[in-house]
Design goal:
The complex is a heterodimer. By secondary structure, chain A is α+β, with helices and mostly antiparallel strands. Chain A has helices spanning 9-18, 27-34, 51-63, 80-83, 110-113, 133-143, 146-166, and strands at 23-26, 42-47, 67-68, 88-93, 96-101, 103-104, 108-109, 117-123, 126-131. Chain A has a 5-stranded mixed beta sheet. Chain A has a two-stranded antiparallel ribbon with strand order 6-7. Chain A has a two-stranded antiparallel sheet with strand order 8-9. Chain B is built from 3 helices and no strands. Chain B has helices spanning 11-14, 25-32, 36-55. The chains are: A alpha+beta, B mainly alpha.
């Protein structure tokens, strides 16, 4: 099986934003950006499947030299019809593994999820939208795969700690 | 069992090092003390570290100091 390059998530995100692709980061990288201490080797993205966005995404994928991940090493590029579908496109790029998801959870597309997203600076001025943490937990609950269930306690406690950190300290009591 | 939303009465338990199901809360608090960009850099370093270990190469880039993850 072909070895993957060491991932450079920031550079992949930069290329997507440079090409003005409408997308949301979900999955492990999203969880990390929210503060969950977990690790992942791929970048999961939900993209808008509107034709003009698919065209921009195809240009970004060309810049990333994206190909499908086939164990046989077969080199096949994703096309507009693949990116317009609700399916998951599991790609290998020159900057690491990139999963393009047409829908996630209970068949939720980009247009629905964007209402539950926040903008963050991922580094070096690269601003991206990521699913908010409560929505990410809901998606993982809907997906209910073994891998997703395993990270749920970590995500729920990250959310609780975030909420606890936002609470004002208790008022001092008069002596 | 899923953790319940925090209330005033369970504040002391949130200061615990672990959740009842064994989640290390100290690492979560450490991650929350950073900006998103810093968290992404931590992930990058972790991946590089794992890949180096897999290849049997010593990792000179990560100090192992959670207080100062950016500097060896």
């Amino acid at each position: 099986m072909r070895e993957s390059p060491t991932p450079d998530f920031l550079e992949i995100l930069r290329i997507l934003t440079t090409h003005k692709v409408d997308f949301l980061v979900v999955g492990g990288v999203c969880a990390v950006l929210h503060g969950a201490p977990l690790s992942t080797f791929d970048l999961d993205v939900v993209h808008s499947r509107k034709p003009d966005n698919v065209a921009r995404l195809l240009a970004a994928l060309e810049a990333l030299d994206a190909r499908y991940r086939f164990p046989t090493g077969q080199r096949l590029k994703p096309g507009a019809s693949h990116l317009s579908s609700p399916g998951h496109q599991l790609l290998r790029t020159r900057l690491g593994l990139l999963d393009l998801l047409g829908v996630v959870g209970a068949n939720r597309p980009y247009e629905e999820l964007v209402a539950s997203s926040v903008e963050v600076e991922a580094g070096e001025g690269v601003r991206i939208r990521i699913l908010d943490l409560a929505a990410l937990i809901r998606i993982k609950e809907e997906t209910a795969g073994e891998k997703d269930r395993a990270v749920l306690p970590l995500l729920r406690w990250t959310l609780l700690e975030k909420l606890a950190a936002r609470r004002p300290p208790p008022e001092p009591q008069p002596e | 069992m899923a953790p319940q939303p925090p209330s005033d009465s369970d504040q002391p338990s949130l200061e615990a090092a672990h959740s009842p199901e064994g989640v290390d809360l100290t690492v979560i608090r450490w991650m929350l003390s950073m900006t998103p960009a810093e968290r992404l850099r931590v992930l990058d370093r972790h991946i590089r570290s794992v890949l180096r270990m897999r290849a049997g190469i010593p990792d000179p880039g990560f100090s192992g100091d959670p207080e100062n993850p950016d500097h060896a």
